[in-house]
Amino acid sequence: MHRLSNLSRSFTSKSSSKLTTIRQASMAGKHQAAILPQKGGPLSVVDRATLEPGPNDVLVEAKAIAVNPVDYLQRDFGMPPPSYPAVVGSDVAGLVVKVGSNVSNAPPSGSRAIAFASSFYQGGSQDHGAFQKYVLAQSEGVIALPDALSFDTKNHECLKKLGADVVFDYKASDVVSQIIDTVKKDGVTLRTAICVVEGSLQPTLDVLRHTMGDAVAKVAHAPPLLPGAPTLEGAEVKFVLPPMDPAERSDHMYKCFHVWLRDGLNSGTVLPSPRVRIEAGGLQGLNKALNTSRAGVSGTKIVVQV
């Protein structure tokens, strides 16, 4: 979920003062949303009713929406949502408009915030998908956006600044042997990994085959695992997603957002990364943003401003 911090640099305040005026009138009216009408898309921008937040929800006025690989998989290949029409997307930066009656752990109305707003965990509710101007998010996944955040640039130097001890060019033809040689030279056992882009699982398993030793290796896979995905004896590969049990998921999201992410952003131990690329067109530009993401980007998070 660290990818949410990428949004912070596309939604910075011109002053440190709190925003105190919100367009409350829109809550009783309508807002624009980029809906997915059927499998294979494309997204279509329509008007939707703006709802009051439920007891445990936060209503956020989106200012920036980040796209992720799962978003174009949902649009193009029929991955969840469970039904159509749907509002997909999950990563939002914006203003808190109103909080639900039971909410005590989210920023107050008028605050700048980042939110995890996914309809997948809300029974396909269109009101909870990120690709719209006003979106509901469960309170455990909403935190205040710090006033001051740093800016970074090119990939390897950026990764070193973020704390990486060694970096490799994944496009190098011998990158697998480079990593294996480095691990053996350092005299360490490497048995955990995370794959965040499509096509990275096989080379990751090739590395682990020579570095995992006798213990079980574990791989977290951020893109959904498709049928026929590579495997390795002695390695567990799991798709990364929050628990499906609602109570466990709420606890998990609270720890991720209100402990790790919020405290890390405020202390500087979590840095916004990678660099942001703005796609023009607002909600109308989401189709192009998804196409850009699907074509492949490096060290870049695609964001639309709304």
UniProtKB/TrEMBL annotation:
Signal peptide: none annotated. The keyword Magnesium does not apply. It comes from the Eukaryota. GO terms for molecular function: oxidoreductase activity, acting on NAD(P)H. InterPro entries: ADH-like_N, GroES-like_sf, Trans-enoyl_RdTase-like. Keywords: Oxidoreductase. Residues 54-147 form the Alcohol dehydrogenase-like N-terminal domain. Belongs to the zinc-containing alcohol dehydrogenase family. This is Alcohol dehydrogenase-like N-terminal domain-containing protein. It comes from Letharia columbiana.
